[in-house]
Amino acid sequence: MNSVDEVLARLRALRANDVPTHGGRTLSYVYDSGLADADALGRHALADFGGTNGLDPTAFPSLLAMENDLVAFAGDLLDAESGFAGTVTSGGTESILLAVKAARDASAVVSPAMVLPATAHAAFHKAAHYFGVRPVVVDVDPVTFRADPDAMRAAVDDSTVLLVGSAPSYAHGVIDPIAAIAAIGADRGIRVHVDACIGGWVLPFLPDVAPWTFAVPGVTSISVDLHKYGYSPKGVSILLHRNAELRRSQFFATADWPGYTMLNTTIQSTKSGGPLAAAWAVATFLGREGYADLARTARQASLDVAAGVTGLRPLVAPDSTLLALVASDDFDVYTVADEMAARGWLVPPQLPYRGGPASLHLSLCAATAPLVPELLGALADSVAVARAAGPVALDPGLVAVVAALDPSGLDAAAFDGILAMAGLAGGAQLPERMAMINALLGEASSQLREALLLAFLHRLTRPERLS
């Protein structure tokens, strides 16, 4: 048996190579308010309620009360009318999964489909895979990167059970024309889901935002995350429905076994009440006024970066707090990402998709705002290095091999060989510099990218026995 101090020391050692969760330099994956009191309060509530179980609200009425409070808060932000209903989930992906499930289960369509802009979050594809709902992907406007309502209308048929829009899209940070999409749904009697997972706790506090909430007729459900710009610990999201009847098909129940009757509002059964309590505590502490200040601060940071960046340019003007930056001339953003990492910044690259360019993703949080001059300087220095290095040079033979590969016909040995060529074989960690690997993945089809990275993940997650 190890001592408490020994275990804590090992935990600290394990964290040594993680990206920082606070400090404003990690521009994806984590969201930092910069408020020490809010962080400490969230962690305290997370620990206090970590052992509770949200499976049965009659056993833990505290969790039920906090869930109802959070859903009411979200409903007020998103212009919900009397009779709306909502559920706290583990994150945006679960909220989206449940929205798709609810649409499928409420329909009598045998082979259901949903119409998605090409910029819709990957979680919709996951839902399609899990629930057998065919994704009909429609190209977006090539200039604005917003959904094309006319193209979406043309894609609708008798099998369509759901239409999707983003507020904003994760990759590009722009709000789809939700009113036009919702009008299609209203005309055809089809549910319309707005993915506001990353914008729902920011956009309500910004001026001159295109309509996207329940104030838009035809919007039937909205997902919004608290562990993003709600600045609470992972993982908490909320799925709201315009009315309780729309939510009914989200639930699951079975009494067809000898134990307790299983009643689930979410995909999970047993679930810790810690994240819910932490979100409730942080939201109660900050309130509307605190969130309004944080939203304005993060929004201004995104505008300052967009206006001040050199060598890179925004792919499209941001509607919220997200930026996609592309190269303004002949260099690789993959090298820029590596250089930023060497300078202590996580600025993840986004690979080319459906003819769009590779880009850098930045989620600007309130904690990053004071660091914008430093961020702009680091980007400028990183661009200078990337320009001097020139575009990543890939072996033409390797590019040809990748372009010709059919991932469905590859066995484990073939994947091992390709991973080795790509620099992804051996060891339990990625190489420090990823530009060459990202450039090669950028040449691969989406299907081959998936197959290669799944093969790598399979090899990465093979634990050794603990001593």
UniProtKB/TrEMBL annotation:
Keyword ATP-binding: no
Cofactor: pyridoxal 5'-phosphate
InterPro entries: GrpII_AminoAcid_Decarb (IPR050477), PyrdxlP-dep_de-COase (IPR002129), PyrdxlP-dep_Trfase (IPR015424), PyrdxlP-dep_Trfase_major (IPR015421), PyrdxlP-dep_Trfase_small (IPR015422)
Organism, as annotated: Nostocoides vanveenii
Keyword Hydrolase (UniProt): no
Coiled-coil residue spans: none
Protein name according to UniProt: Aminotransferase class V-fold PLP-dependent enzyme
Family: Belongs to the group II decarboxylase family. Sphingosine-1-phosphate lyase subfamily.
Keywords: Aminotransferase, Lyase, Pyridoxal phosphate, Transferase
Cited SUPFAM superfamilies: PLP-dependent transferases (SSF53383)
GO molecular function, one term: transaminase activity
PANTHER family given in the database record: PTHR42735, SPHINGOSINE-1-PHOSPHATE LYASE 1
